[in-house]
Design brief:
mainly alpha, single chain, about 80% helix
Length: about 160
C-alpha cells in the first residue's frame, strides 16, 4: 500500500461512511463543500479552497514528520537498550530476539485489527487492499471539482514536512 494516496484518502475522506464508490465520492464532495463554506464564513470570505488545503496540508505534513521522528528515536533507543541489556548480562541475544518477534507479532495484529475497517471503506476497486488505483478512483472527481484544494494540500504537506 502506498502511503501518500492512502493518507490523502484517509485525511480528506475520513468522515465519509462506507458506501458505493459513486455515493461515497458524492458524500465526500458534499463534506468538502461544507468545509469550504464554513471556512469562508469564519474568515468573512478571505479563505477558500487554497487556504483550507494549505492549512490542512501543513498540519498533516508537520504531524507526519513529528511522528516519523518519534518512531525513529524509539527504534534507536530500543536498540541501544537491548544492546546494553545484552552487554550487562541481563538477557541473552536469543531471549531478546524472541521478545522482539513477540512484540512484532502483537503490533502487526493490532495494526491489522485497526485498519481492516479502513480497507473496507476505501477499497474502491474491491480488490481487498488500498492502493494507488483506489486513490485515483476515489479522488479523480474530487480533484476535478476542487483542484485548488488538492494542489494546495499537496504543497502544504511538503511545506509542513519541511518545517516539521
Amino acid at each position: 500500500m502506498s502511503a501518500l494516496p492512502a493518507l490523502l484518502v484517509l485525511v480528506i475522506g475520513g468522515g465519509v461512511a462506507h458506501a458505493q464508490p459513486q455515493q461515497q465520492t458524492d458524500a465526500l464532495e458534499a463534506q468538502i463543500e461544507k468545509w469550504v463554506a464554513r471556512a469562508r464564513e469564519l474568515t468573512d470570505g478571505r479563505v477558500g479552497e487554497l487556504g483550507i488545503g494549505a492549512g490542512a496540508g501543513i498540519m498533516c505534513g508537520f504531524v507526519g514528520k513529528k511522528v516519523q521522528g518519534v518512531v525513529v528515536n524509539m527504534a534507536i533507543l530500543g536498540a541501544v537498550a537491548g544492546a546494553g541489556a545484552c552487554y550487562f548480562g541481563w538477557t541473552t541475544p536469543e531471549q531478546l530476539k524472541e521478545k522482539a518477534i513477540q512484540v512484532e507479532t502483537w503490533a502487526e495484529e493490532q495494526v491489522r485489527k485497526r485498519t481492516s475497517s479502513w480497507v473496507k471503506r476505501f477499497d474502491q476497486d474491491l480488490d481487498g487492499d488500498v492502493d494507488w488505483e483506489d486513490s485515483k478512483i476515489h479522488m479523480s472527481s474530487v480533484v476535478k471539482r476542487h483542484g485548488a484544494l488538492a494542489a494546495s494540500f499537496a504543497g502544504g504537506a511538503l511545506v509542513g514536512y519541511r518545517i516539521g
